[in-house]
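Suppose you are handed a protein chain with no further information: no name, no annotation, nothing but its sequence. What can you learn? This example shows the usual starting point.
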Amino acid sequence: MPQSEKPDDQERLVERVERHCDSIWDWLRAQGVATRAPFPDPRTLRSFSLGEVAEILGVSGSYLRQLSIDGQGPTPELGTAGRRSYTLGQINELRKHLASARPKEALKFWPRRREGDKLQIIAVVAGPASTTTSFYLAEGLALKGYRVLAIDLDSHGSLSCMFGYYSFGYPIYNASMAAAIRYDGDEKKMRSVIQPTLFDGLDLVPGSAELSIFENECSRRFRSENFRYPDASLRMVSALKEVEADYDVTVLACGDGGFLTAGAYEAATGVLVTVRPEVPQIVSMTSSLYEFKHFVALIERAGRTVNHDFFKCLVTRHDPRDVSQQNSIAKLREILGDDLLAATVWESDAIRQAGDKGRSLYELSSGAVGRSSYEQAMKSLNTANAEIMDIMFEVWGRAPFYASLASRSTTAGKAKSQSKRPRS
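A reasonable first move is to predict its three-dimensional structure. Written in structure tokens, the prediction is:
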């Protein structure tokens, strides 16, 4: 490519683009969009109304109100007309208090791993809405009291952006999963790359273009004579063991990397595959399934066994009014049987609008996106999450109850009508 004959013009163009970027980013920050990397994030998680907390915990609002009056549990913030609200940290304090006060229901309120329960590691296969699924699964688990680690294995950092960590396409050094599993002797401890999120009990390992560099190194080693089967998978398993005691669930959001994805499959105790109920998307899912089989075969050829407690497919972006989609889902159920979750996540303007705001529905109140759409989306999301949590309970030898609880509730993130409840 010939050099520019007008270097001054080129320099002015670079400066103009930089000015545009700075102005756009200033505007985004003024809109409340998260700015964690490389900037500090001014965003905080909203408080939850007493009605929302009652539904999240599965108790009555009057019971929680009486606890507050009696001085038991955390002290809520009192707003207009004495309405009580709690932070997520306070909700978790309430969980601990209720588990102690009502020991027969301790697992309901404090569902964290007990001694002998293994860390649940859920690999979410790259596919339609897989990043959104990982995002809402991680946040939904945190709202239910679990200690969760979300790991973004996508070099584009798609999940990280949802949490407010932006890498701008740069390979930020030692700030992703690659830092804990790299080959060059400069690897870091797993804890050094874990970042907090807005949600109490939910942490994140961000993704960035650094993961692509790691993939290239894995590919080079794979093709060399001495490293026919690179040990990226073993390194990931080992890194997760470093923080195993700190979490109940790890959500691995798979991306575009083959070796990192293989590592996720070997580390995982469960695998979740998303699919849209449309023929082209089902073709894409089938390709992902063949790829899964290929990666597992490579690991087993290297002499290691891959065992998963569950393998499930989840229908996402489902329009229940679309007859062709209904027919596709029926066919998928016929083929996949119990490997297809009963719940489906509906196509939702509320989820889309929340994403446009740089938030999740769990972070917003119903008024931010429209009450009816909000409630419908929350019902859909919570029902899918409940089914996954019941599977985890079964793995831990506990009786499942989340799905039945979700079917009786309205939405876990919605306050009940205030017109019927003058005080809270």
